[in-house]
């Protein structure tokens, strides 16, 4: 009936005034509808709050500092030591025995961190984040799950990051993600609340506001892109949004090698050079013709012609070792992609590269 009044009690009013004071308000009071009881209770609550703040400050000064968890992988990177990252594709079914065996083999070979793809080529596989948690708990090896923008909205992304943080996962590789195959788009829908640059910025915001001990974010860098300057420009935007480094596509051409050098000169972040062993002539042709982001030099393809399976594997290892030694003085580490779950091939390469 045109009468101004507060339905809330003096207690509720006072506690809301305290919240405003904590946000920085310097002058507090009540408008039409308040009574002296509201102001009196506000003074009491503010006095109690000041008293408790003084006690908390005294307790904080007596308590020890929070020890932040820094993975060994990140320590090595910050110290300028060469690191070795290996990507393992998650299985397509619930049998992860081979995956776990390969991960254990790689750890014993001296690998610093295992990266796990997030449903590559947009087909469902075992969740990369859950596998990362399992590897961290059971094998005590550093892990970096891939995090795509394709399958999660902002709520699901935040929930996943909270869970990873609780499990002491501190590294994520942020990628936009492959599009859903056109034949499946009636059944499977993309989300794309973010692109990789936006998601990196969102994680940085969570590091500042939510996590006492946040994430190190990494991105992908396509050194085989036809217009590499565009890739560099996006990489620089990613760095501005908080990315600390990049894992590149495989170096299998002279152009890719030159672009790797250019990236190292122009970017501030750490760069891990991508290396994938070619396993056969057919494999080389397939990668060159069918896989986006991978180019194979014609001379390399020709080298595999007419070779047996064993000879091809041996040659693939030899070429990968040569590439690793070639990029050694440019990159901050190596990013090996495991072909056909052949972790033994990656271990062989690691044992032969110059230390």
SSE blueprint:
Blueprint lengths: L9 H13 L13 H27 L9 H7 L4 E6 L8 H12 L4 E4 L11 H12 L2 E7 L5 H13 L4 E5 L20 H14 L6 E6 L6 H13 L4 E6 L3 H13 L3 E6 L5 H10 L7 H6 L5 H19 L5 E5 L5 H10 L3
Parallel strand pairs: 1-2, 1-8, 2-3, 3-4, 4-5, 5-6, 6-7, 7-8
Helix pairs in contact: 1-2, 4-13, 7-8, 12-13
Radius of gyration: 27 Å
Largest sheet composition: 8 strands, parallel, barrel
Name the poorly predicted regions: none
Q: Number of DSSP strands?
A: 8
Biggest sheet, strands in spatial order?
A: 1-2-3-4-5-6-7-8
Q: Tell me the number of helical segments per DSSP (H or I, 4 or more residues long).
A: 13
Q: Give the fraction of residues assigned to helices.
A: 40-55%
What share of the residues does DSSP label as strand, in percent? 5-15%
C-alpha geometry: elongated
Average pLDDT across residues? 89
H-E order: HHHEHEHEHEHEHEHEHHHEH
Output the structural class. alpha/beta
- The N- to C-terminal Cα distance equals 84 Å
Q: How would you portray this structure in words?
A:
- The chain is α/β, with parallel strands linked by helices.
- The chain has helices at residues 10-22, 36-62, 72-78, 97-108, 128-139, 154-166, 196-209, 228-240, 254-266, 281-290, 298-303, 309-327, 343-352; strands at 83-88, 113-116, 142-148, 171-175, 216-221, 245-250, 270-275, 333-337.
- Helix 7 (196-209) links the parallel strand 4 (171-175) and strand 5.
- The longest helix is centred in the first third of the chain and has 27 residues, at 36-62.
